[in-house]
Structures are given as C-alpha cells and as structure tokens.
C-alpha cells in the first residue's frame, strides 16, 4: 500500500515537473499559459474567477492521452494582465485566440461543458465579430 501511495505522488511530481509556463503577449495584454504534454493542442478554460490550475488532474490525464494541454490564466490571475473595464467577451475570446495562434499552431481541439454551451440560435461572441469564427473558436 505504501508503495502505491509513493508511486502516485512520484507520478504527480513528474507531471508537475513537465509543466511549463509561457506568456503570450499582444497589444497591452499578457496571458500566462500553463503548458504540458505533446500532440494536438487542447485548451482548458476555467469558469468565471477561477484559476486554470484547478484542472491539474484533468490536464495530466489529457497529456498522458497524447495531447498538448494549454491552460490560459484569465486576466488578473497569475501573471495574466490586461484591461478589466470597458471590455466584453470579444476581448476574452481574442485572448484565447492569441494563445491558440501562439502555442497551438493556429489549431486547437474544442469542446464545451454544459454550462458554457451556446444555446441554439444565439449568436456567439466570435460569430458576432465575423462570418467565420477565429480558429473555430466559439464561446
């Protein structure tokens, strides 16, 4: 039993050691991104006022499954900075699109949890900006 517990902690420590961070900068914005794994990029976005570090265990599993996991920290969390007043969801979508461009080779797998899934017939912020969403990203 002790050996099993030790191996779990050693595995978690190994994954934590393989995590890196990179700052994606554009205009007056800097987005702190936690990166781990190799393969096609997949993006994990935290919900409102949450840190993307909340998803360490999920990111580890996705990295083991062969994905490059990108976890941008929202503005105001970690080393991420940018205007927080006079902005809209379009600005946050641009933050994510810049991360995909810089670290996901312009492509990223996407999925939505039930709380963030757009309702049928409602325009998304990205769709409201242009006829085609940037990098396939829809919020």
SSE layout:
Elements: H1 2-18, E1 20-26, E2 29-36, E3 41-43, H2 56-64, E4 68-72, H3 89-103, H4 125-129
Structure, described:
It is built from four helices and four strands; from the N terminus they run αβββαβαα. It has 139 residues and is of the alpha+beta class. It has one domain: Rossmann fold, CATH 3.40.50. It is globular, with a radius of gyration of 16 Å.
Largest sheet: 4 strands, mixed
First and last CA, distance: 45 Å
Helix content: 25-40%
Helix count equals 4
Choose one word for the global shape: globular
Poorly predicted ranges? 4-11, 112-139
Number of strands: 4
Strand content: 15-25%
Overall SS class: alpha+beta
CATH architecture: 3-Layer(aba) Sandwich
Strand order of the largest sheet: 1-2-4-3
CATH-level-4 superfamily name: Alpha/Beta hydrolase fold, catalytic domain
What is the radius of gyration?
16 Å
What is the level 1 CATH name?
A: Alpha Beta
CATH topology: Rossmann fold
Mean pLDDT: 77
Domain count, please report it.
1
